[in-house]
Amino acid sequence: MPLFFMIVLILRSLLKNNWIFLGILIGFGLQACQQVAEEVAPPSFSLEREATNYLSAMAGNHRFNGQVLIAKGDNVLYRKALGYADRSNEKAFDDSSRFLIGSITKPFTAAAVLILVESGELALEDRLNKYFPEFPRAHEVTIRHLLNHTSGIKDYHELPNWKEESQRALLTSMDVVKAVARESYRYEPGEKFHYSNTGYILLGLIIEQVSGQTFDHYLDMQIFQPLGLSHTGVIKNSVSIPNLVKGYRTNPLGSQEAEWINYDQPFSSGNVYSNLEDLRCFTRAVFQGTLFATHHLESIGAESSSIYELGWGIRSLDSLQLIGHVGAMNGFVGGISYWPEEDLFIGYLTNDDNTPRFEISHSLSQLALGYKVPIPERKTYRNQTDVDIGLYTGRYLVKPGDTLRVYEDGGQLYLQETGQESHIMFGYGANRFDFERLEFNAVFRDSIGEGFQTLVFENKGNTFLQANRVPKGAF
Q1: Which alpha helices (DSSP H) does 156-236 contain, by range?
Q2: Rounded distance, CA 398 to CA 420, Å?
Q3: DSSP per-residue letters across 349-402
Q4: How many CA atoms are closer than 13 Å to the CA of 207, on its beta-carbon side?
Q5: CB under 8 Å to 188, separation ≥6 — which residues?
Q6: Are 61 and 360 in contact (CB under 8 A)?
Q7: How many CB atoms lie within 10 A of CB 74?
Q8: For the whole prediction, is pTM greater than 0.85?
Q9: What does the pLDDT look like over 179-190, one tens digit per residue?
């Protein structure tokens, strides 16, 4: 398992079990979903002050640029926007701002599947070979497996050329499916959980087969229009979306507009745009029985070991179960969390992919429940010319056959795990380094002789990996 994927798993554990969330089902009607929430006074511990201090610190470290909404029922507890929708023109966010939501698309895709299930046009135990008879081992995979990421089908992000393919104008969603079909399964269908965007692309194509409509048209007719989600839709390569904010790629040294991708690659795994008010309405509608009967969701959270069911993740926070999802897409990051018992919604959307999605989701959930969170330290980043690069360069052993290589290229330090992509290292403080889009920092310790002997990874003060320098000549 690549180290940086392993680190994500460790961070999920540090952030109390998962990053995408679930809970208990209750019922309300469509009318509440269509209402715009009213502002109310913050709670006594001052959610306004604590959340603003936290988000301002994150923004000061180039880690947040977007909007936040925390609402209980129809009452807004906290609403905030920081940064710009368009940095070059210093255009602020407003109520009409729309964001790409990446994998938060998956709850919409799952809802569309469950609408078809309720109408009798589809069954959760239908086999994949009913719709894709040529896909390898399709007779072993069910619709439920695809929804729950337990199919064993590889995520297309595991293909070595997926980034290059994302830039290809003529790429189609079927091209993605065919490319993954040539790969072996990660494990036996139904055996365990492993996140797979490919499974949700297959679900979108199945929705089209069963309904006889395009994916975007089916969602518009069955979900967006009935719920009055006026700022939500499916993004397409050929259509310009009004008020879609610009996405950015940022690091401590600067920011640039995110690169274009072909939206037919993620397709129904990540091609929806929305805003926070619409996401709040949609989430409530799902768990309050507006779109389909809640008995279809009875399996969600039934097992204490469950971390993902039917398009939603499950997370424990202080003995509570929260539901939700996070998402990212070429310059955009977002997260939604929901506590059904209290009808409490927590959401954020940013147009900057340097946002630490898991950390912010967790911290906002804690704040919404009345807990203070540590305010991130303000980081002053060093120029590489101020760093004695030779003290850091070398190889650090993770385990036999897997090392972290710290090397210099063009006066810049990089970190690379065996067989994985390189990550630029941004120095701050005493022997500390940040990374673009990664949710941990590196600390070098034990300086003797020619350099540091130990490389440690930390998250919010927690050490979760230590690698010792490999003596020169060992490789």
Answers
A1: 162-166, 173-181, 197-211, 215-219, 225-227
A2: 14
A3: EESBTTS-HHHHHHHHHHHHTT---PPPPPP-BPPGGGS-GGGT-EEEEEETTE
A4: 30
A5: 140, 152
A6: no
A7: 15
A8: yes
A9: 999 999 999 999
